[in-house]
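Case study.
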Amino acid sequence: MPERRSRIQILLGTRKGTFVVEGDTRRHSWRVGRRAHEGDEVYHVVADPRHPGSRYAAVNNGFWGPAVHRSQDGGRTWKEIATPLLPRTKARRNRTHPSAPVANLWHIEPGHPREPNVLFLGADPHLLFRSDDLGRSWESVDSINEHPARKDWAPGAGGACLHTILIDPRDPKRMYVGLSAVGTFRTENGGRSWTPTNKGVLAPFLPNKHPETGQCVHHVVPDAANPDTFYRQDHGGMYVSHDRMDRWIRIGRPLGDDFGFCVASPSAAPGRAYFVRLDGRDRTTGIGHFQVQEWNDERQKWRTLVHPNAFPGHYAVHREGMATDNREEPGIYVGTTTGHLFVSSDGGSSWRQVPFGFPGIHSVSVANPSTG
Amino acid sequence: MGPTIEVRLDGWLRQFGPKPRESVEADSVDHLIDSLEERYPRLRFKLRDETGHLRRHVRVFIDGEDVSGTTAGSTPLSGAGVVDILHSIAGG
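After joint prediction, the assembly is written out as follows.
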């Protein structure tokens, strides 16, 4: 069935399955569709804008292991496709985790528009896979998975996840990846080699506070207008880079504690990035209510969004827990570990909660009506 | 080939194809799972990971005796009658 392209979809990966939440482009009312992957931990759900109606889910079952699922009807029905696995020999000789199999699947990234059958997938333990046939088969990206420095890589509290995969819209050979407790890397040659890109990022939990790698990157997004600019939420603060991650500048200092997990930047608001600042010790908003911080990169200024009385409570948001849409007046969507879904349809000026009790939300993404 | 074993499978595994009871000729737990995977390809990597080890929360009982663990696969089935494959109490 062709997708109703006038609708916008919020795709949620939760502790207990996948939810598709649909609304019109006014984004004032939402309908929660039937849950899929009941009982499974779904770490990421994403639309593939190159193939309208196509959705992918990273499904992790505590008993039967990880699996990739695909929907070709906008998330109404799903089917398991090939799961990326290490060949037995490689799984056994992995130097950081001897005999470690692929554990949880963390992120699925549709490839560049010029490579319409390419998908990338990030997994634990610190693994990157590539598919050239839309997930019918997967290849281990050995330049990362067999990286010489791998013996020094350790997991973060959430596991040894490779969670961020970014592709330069101008050149599919330029990509970036983010690995927990390792940091970010860039390739200029389609993944044949990778350069660490963590200069300027603090590693407060290591004896050397500014190592080449070892930073615990939580999430990174590109700026919509300038693909050389990136916004980064790291364990060691909030950062911006204007030079393809060659150097990072800490922007979160004015906020005091600039810990957090998520970051998003809407395509219609270049120079804007949204973060949810969390208390670095208890990993919740800490201050007793939900809030979002907006960074204006041109003015170099912060603005705190969400009225303090609007949503009282102590909320936590995971690394994939915030997304934006492509509307002229940007929509911002934030899912919490307590199953609250907060929506702004006016670039953060006003907020409402989708009136539905979701399981704890791992990931939020958007299928835009014009593209996906 | 080995003795004919009656296999009783966890109800949650039916989503991958097998019936609640299967009859399999096998001389070890690995051999038994190999046969089930051949019969039901969607079972592949559900009971064992790609290193060949039984998944952490999969339990195997031979005539009521728990043999689960990373070495479960090599457990011989000579003289065995019934093998139960279940999921363990875990999660929340």
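Observations recorded in class. Chain A has a mean pLDDT of 93. The CA atoms of residues 8 and 369 of chain A lie 5 Å apart. We will return to this complex in the next lecture.
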